[in-house]
Amino acid sequence: MQKLKADFDQGVRSTRSKESRYYEYHILKARQNNDKTLVRKLISERSRAPATDFGSDELKRLVYVRYADD
User: Fold this and answer.
1) How confident is the model over 39-58, as pLDDT tens digits?
2) Domain hosting residue 17, numbered range
3) Structural domain tally of the chain?
């Protein structure tokens, strides 16, 4: 089982989503312009967007779960 897991796993961390990168860029620009209301608005919108792209093929993990039914 360990060899199968070692062969299957790839990548270190999942890639960031496009939405997450979009919000980070615009938050940075708003901070540079000292626009605090826009920063707060963008941060609240960013919290609703997924941070990572889970559909990416760059990160794969195999997890073995042993299930026993009494």
Assistant:
1) 999 999 999 988 888 777 78
2) 1-70
3) 1
